[in-house]
Amino acid sequence: MSNLDRQAVPAVCGGRGFVVAEPVRELLSPRRVQLGESTEVRRLLPNLGRRMVGAWCFVDHYGPDDIADEPGMQVPPHPHMGLQTVSWLHDGEVLHRDSTGSLQTIRARELGLMTSGRAISHSEESPRPHARLLHGAQLWVALPDAHRHTEPHFEYHPDLPVVTAPGLTATVVLGTLDGTASPGTTYTPLTGADLTLTHGADVRLPLDADFEYAVLSMSGEARVDGVPVLPGSMLYLGCGRTELPLRAETDAGLMLLGGEPFEEELIMFWNWIGRTQQEIEQARRDWMEGTRFGEVKGYDGDPLPAPGLPRTPLKPRGRVR
Question: In this predicted model, what pLDDT tens digit does every residue of 243-287 receive, in sequence order?
């Protein structure tokens, strides 16, 4: 998915200097962003005070939206570099096309994982016809320097492993959880899990004390380490935890995001992650001139133009403002 904000601003993120080294309970509120003509998303990362959770650097939550009489998601071809995109749905389906030739319909609880590496472009749209409801999350994972120029590729994993406890089903979307690993390719130590809680569930989820974590609420009402977390909000939890208390006030859906704190400092501008202003400038030239990022074939519409670069220099700094 793209950052369609035409007033794109650079986000500076990464580096261990701003990682919270002990457990915390920091509730992050979303910023509402229009995605295309008919989809509004709630952006949780990057946030005013928090830029990353492990290598997770971008989180949008959208829906549930009734799109029975609407076109639904319509995101024209746009470029990415230096990151992975994770498409995750609770309702509906999204048709993915990219410049490597991939064409895949992604449905609820199926993993669509695109590794941009040095350069890729893709589009996302609700198929015609499509389901009545659209509800999901779009997430990005920053690639470390050793792998950020890898060849672009797309993975589709319809069957994912689960971890269960009374009242809890945890689908391992990416990375590992409680010794169970997703088949999706990762490049840093990572956790991404979809948590389904039944009403009244009261469980403790095992965590890695060296990871930092956050929990995104997708649906229902739940308490995360005693803090009420409502749909469309995210609770940052810091590091140093070996378990996480969860209690469901209703049937609830959450996403657990975590990973080893990301050491490298990054520049994230529009849909690109780089290390220097020169890299971002070159990416913009390449996209506008139609080179490097390839062509998305089959999409009925023009690709997105890149926003202009800011007047202020693009410099990598820390994880928080």
Answer: 999 999 999 999 999 999 999 999 999 999 999 999 999 999 999
Q: Are 33 and 5 in contact (CB under 8 A)?
A: yes
Residues 6-17 pLDDT 10s: 455 554 454 445
For residue 199, count other CB atoms closer than 10 A to its CB: 12
* Domains of the chain with CATH codes: 22-259 (2.60.120.10)
Residue 195 and residue 163: Cα distance in Å, rounded?
9
Distance CA 261, CA 110 (A): 26
| Residue 245 structure tokens | 């208390």
DSSP per position, 256-305: EEEESPP-SEEEEETTEEESSHHHHHHHHHHHHHT-SS----S-SSPPPP
pTM over 0.85: yes
